[in-house]
Amino acid sequence: MSSSNPTTDPARIVIAVDGTSGSGKSSTSRGVADRLGMRYLDTGAMYRAMTWWMLSNDIDVHDADAVAAAAGKPVITSGTDPLGPTIALDGADVSVEIRSDRVNAAVSPVATVREVRARLIALQQQEIEQALAAGSGIVVEGRDIGTAVWPAAELKLYVTADPAARAARRAAEEGGSDAEAVRASLENRDKIDSTKGGAAVPEGAIHVDTTPYTLDEVIESVVELVETAVRATAEKAGE
To answer: How confident is the model at residue 236 (pLDDT cuts 50, 70, 90)?
Structure first.
């Protein structure tokens, strides 16, 4: 899309991408952001970074009070380049550490703590505000994006896929992990999210089922949705 055309310029809009784990929302979000020259924010990485800090500092992740008391201590910094998103903890890159089995097993109880969510949602809102102030649109993906983080997003998506497809994709991402074990883990995560409300479908969100499509096809479909949303926003503003 040409940046000279105000009706199709994705600058200064927010795309909120919610959905289930393993549905392809991260790959889709990065692809769309790269295609349209937007920033990209992986909110899940922020929760993982918080979890890694708790583990590294011997905080019992199952002790909600202890986690809450420490939630304000770590310094979490997100890089928003869709081709190379980064996550730093107290100034150190932790991109590898946050994908470890230890973090996989501990992130859900940490993410349920109210103080953790409040802290990270505030950081996520700051990232969005900085992007908009700089004249850049941003694709934000994770949980609670269209409900708690940025309810005013010009485009809200809820990305899903059937359980078998999600498990196969996540197993492939993890280097050939057992698909059945991965499926059980994803289903457990879904159960936790539904209990704490993190799996809520945002009001006005467009449902995107990625099951039968390739990544390129999903990205193309979402780009078309973005173009429609940008035109609608421009018309509403009287441009």
So the answer is: confident
